[in-house]
Specification:
The chain is α/β, with parallel strands linked by helices. 40% of the residues lie in helices and 23% in strands. 40% of the residues are buried.
């Protein structure tokens, strides 16, 4: 995937502009608080249609403006193109207006019927220092990571996840109302159908990619392996090969046995909304939960490995090199890990890369030969 052009209008502190990106990418250099991360946020917004920082669309509109609009021209070589090597360009645009709080997303000028249809058309993977939260924070952060990776790589996952969340919300509302138990149980069939599919999607991805995670982490860490497994929020569901029928039956039993507890708490206590992605270091003997026992460097290495695994998933599922967005990615690493990561990226990141750094000396990627832009108070200086 290649981002050829980006139009910025009214987004954060970035000056309205039309940017033309070199095929190999660019390094954006400048002091903090000038807008480097905002630029990567704008690009990544066109991938997920929301801010990676978790802020509302209202907070992305530049102060004093009523609307922001982003449009990216994305070039991709289609595997099924009529002629070998043929490119298919696509324009992805997103806008949000304060008046009426309306979001509009278009593909090649045509508004999408559902926002989910506009997700995943840039093929971007974002690395930031805040990725340490993937390891250090609670299970909901790792579930969100799984949901993003699968939404961008597995057809049907996002629609299934949205359906599960909608039914879960209705069931929880029934439980909180304190009405007859049958009101909550009326949602069980729909909850089990969607929830079992979400569980199978997650489990199959974790099992298929755990070996790749270990290999990536070994290269970054200098030898230590890492593995991941899914601890299901449905009791009785293990880590083996799963089928939807078996998961749905386990879900039915779990719901039946938790009725009293759910009535007391007023919420659904079993299901994929309680899943946990377990991350474990393998030092050669035994295994250690990286969140509890990993050093700062080890936890950051695992977080980086998860992002590189996201990129590897796009390569495998879509047959394309992802666009890598790297926000001061070497800042928190020790010299040895930084050198190993740099070597790994130089060997594997053959697509377009857009990275930021506070100083020119920190641009060591691709021998520092990338095009360099400056940035001052939101204005890109080519």
């Amino acid at each position: 995937m290649r981002l050829a052009q980006l139009e910025l209008r009214g987004f954060r502190n970035l000056v309205d502009d039309t940017l033309e990106f070199p095929p190999e990418g660019v390094a954006v250099v400048g002091p903090n608080a000038q807008g480097k991360s905002n630029l990567l946020e704008a690009i990544h917004y066109l991938e997920l249609l929301r801010s990676f920082r978790g802020v509302s669309d209202r907070d992305l509109v530049r102060f004093g403006e009523d609307v922001f609009r982003l449009e990216g021209l994305v070039e991709a070589q289609e595997a099924d193109a009529p002629f070998e090597g043929q490119r298919r360009d696509r324009k992805v645009a997103a806008a949000w207006q304060r008046t009426g709080a309306r979001k509009k997303v278009t593909l090649d000028g045509v508004e999408v019927e559902r926002l989910a249809d506009g997700v995943g058309h840039v093929g971007a993977v974002l690395f930031t220092p805040a990725d340490l939260a993937l390891v250090d924070d609670g299970p909901h952060i790792r579930r969100r990571y799984l949901d993003i990776v699968l939404s961008l790589s597995e057809p049907g996952y996002l629609a299934t996840l949205q359906r599960y969340r909608q039914v879960l919300s209705q069931r929880n509302a029934a439980l909180k109302s304190g009405g007859h138990a049958s009101q909550a149980r009326a949602w069980d069939g729909l909850l089990m159908a969607a929830g079992s599919r979400v569980t199978v999607f997650r489990s199959r991805w974790v099992r298929s990619m755990s070996g790749a995670l270990s290999q990536i982490h070994q290269e970054i860490s200098g030898g230590t392996g890492a593995r991941m497994s899914l601890e299901s929020g449905i009791s009785g569901v293990g880590n083996g090969e799963l089928e939807e029928d078996g998961v749905e039956e386990a879900f039915r039993v779990a719901l039946a046995t938790s009725q009293e507890r759910e009535a007391r708490l007023g919420t659904t206590t079993v299901g994929p909304h309680r899943d946990e992605l377990l991350l474990v270091l393998e030092p050669g003997e035994g295994a250690r939960d990286v969140r509890r026992f990993g050093s700062g460097g080890q936890r950051r290495s695992v977080a980086l490995a998860l992002r590189l695994l996201e990129a590897e998933t796009i390569r495998r599922r879509k047959g394309r090199e992802p666009l890598l967005l790297m926000d001061d990615v070497f800042a928190e690493l020790d010299e040895a890990r930084s050198a190993r990561l740099l070597d790994l990226l130089d060997r594997t990141a053959v697509g377009q890369v857009i990275l930021t750094a506070p100083r020119k000396a920190e641009i060591r990627f691709r021998d520092g030969g990338m095009a360099r832009w400056g940035i001052r108070e939101g204005r890109l200086l080519r």
